């Protein structure tokens, strides 16, 4: 057997072995692990009455006073997953400062509170622009409006907020947060 033929056969065997391992076995193993945690592997979808209404991982723009409003989004035309990203405006940028002040006035008027009481996450976008979470303070600020618009008592709405609230990861990482998509899905389920 010539050296060229021997090297060609060795290369062919290596290619077939790597194709089997990386093209069949590894993807099958990843798929099998995904089956163990299907909620996370399939987008953490939220369903109400069998109808998918969103994902626990991605924020959604909402219209109308009967819903909890998410934080602003800098991702394209509002929560556009294809345009994820921050505005990249610095903290002293006049455009950012003007946008924050306009948002503060809008939220204060909508919620009927003094602009000084509006939390920072109500007027600033997250780094990805897709964050589905708000602070418990911003959720609490919205409770009276949502309860009034939906004809519910505030205690019921606060209970829903509590159910959509997650604490710090591992007890120390991050801050408590309220998933607005889950919260609005709970409101949808109430009818």
From TrEMBL:
Specify whether Isomerase is a keyword of the entry: no
So where does this one cross the membrane?
A: none
Spell out the protein name for this chain: Potassium-transporting ATPase KdpC subunit
The cellular location(s) given in this protein's UniProt record come to: Cell membrane
Assembly description = The system is composed of three essential subunits: KdpA, KdpB and KdpC.
What GO molecular function terms would the record report?
A: ATP binding; P-type potassium transmembrane transporter activity
Instruction: Identify one Pfam family in the record.
Output: KdpC
Lineage, uppermost ranks: Bacteria, Bacillati, Actinomycetota, Actinomycetes, Micrococcales
Protein's gene = kdpC
Provide GO CC annotations from the record.
Answer: plasma membrane
Coiled-coil annotation reads none
Is Transmembrane helix among this UniProt entry's keywords? yes
């Amino acid at each position: 057997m010539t050296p060229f033929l021997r090297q060609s056969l060795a290369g062919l065997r290596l290619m077939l072995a790597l194709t089997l391992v990386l093209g069949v076995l590894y993807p099958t193993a990843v798929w099998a692990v995904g089956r163990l945690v299907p909620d996370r592997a399939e987008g953490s979808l939220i369903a109400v009455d069998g109808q998918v209404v969103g994902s626990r991982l991605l924020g959604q723009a909402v219209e109308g006073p009967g819903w909890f409003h998410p934080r602003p989004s800098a991702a394209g035309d509002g929560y556009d997953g294809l345009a994820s990203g921050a505005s990249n405006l610095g903290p002293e940028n006049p455009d950012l400062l003007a946008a924050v002040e306009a948002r503060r006035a809008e939220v204060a008027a909508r919620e009927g509170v003094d602009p000084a009481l509006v939390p920072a996450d109500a007027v600033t976008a997250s780094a990805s622009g897709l964050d589905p979470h708000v602070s418990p303070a911003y959720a609490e600020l919205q409770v009276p409006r949502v309860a009034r618009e939906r004809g519910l008592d505030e205690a019921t709405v606060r209970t829903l907020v509590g159910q959509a609230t997650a604490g710090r990861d591992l007890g120390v990482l991050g801050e408590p947060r309220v998933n607005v998509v889950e919260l609005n899905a709970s409101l949808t389920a109430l009818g």
